[in-house]
Amino acid sequence: MKKRNKCTCIPVIPVAVAVLVVILFSSCGLGTNTKTIKRMQALEEGVSSPTTEAELKDAIQKYQARVEDIAQANQQIGIWYKMLGSRYLDNQMYGEALEAFRKATTYYPANQNLYYYVAVCAGYMANQALDYAATGSTAQKFNYLKLAESAYLQALKLDSKYARALYGIGVLYIFELDEPGKAIPYLETLAEIEKKNVDGLFLLANAYYQTYEYERAVEIYDRIIATTTSSEKKAQAEANKRQVLETAYAG
Question: What is the pTM of this model?
Fold first, then answer.
């Protein structure tokens, strides 16, 4: 009996996959001709050069489905970038997280949460920015802090009552940019919408104290003392209040 020759099977690559490969290579700068992509897309959809009314309607219907597929794919890509950024953030890989969240904003530019995470990552990167060239410059750190500021402001532009961004920009202005006066309106908004947010109240009292509004700082510390159930935080508020009064009387 003769042995049957083994057949070397050549896999058939779907046109859709081929189009995707062409697009990916073109995005890598390999100079793929746009006309080639269009020809492959036309081949996949079975649409070349429609002329009659029926052909035109059929072409529109087919390419409309293509547009919807691309839109859904882009939505999923945006979600994946957000998930990737969250994973990087959990692992304290702040540079990679920042880049992933930045890319996610290109797919979801109206998502305030993404800008909040951009701000958080930028803040971490600012604290890690070292002057390795020993030039005495703090430009890199400052640039990251300003990125954090702009990202918080964008998040608040999209949602003016976004509590985490209100708190975050308060921390940024008070402890990083040394501009406590700018923090006050945001922290006042936070104190209004989250009346029992003790950490936010501590920040607000701090901002009042640093801007010489001692009476208002005392009022906030009294509010904390009356609100908190934490004995530790109550003791801290009482100690801070005494310090504010001593400073006020000394002046």
Answer: 0.75
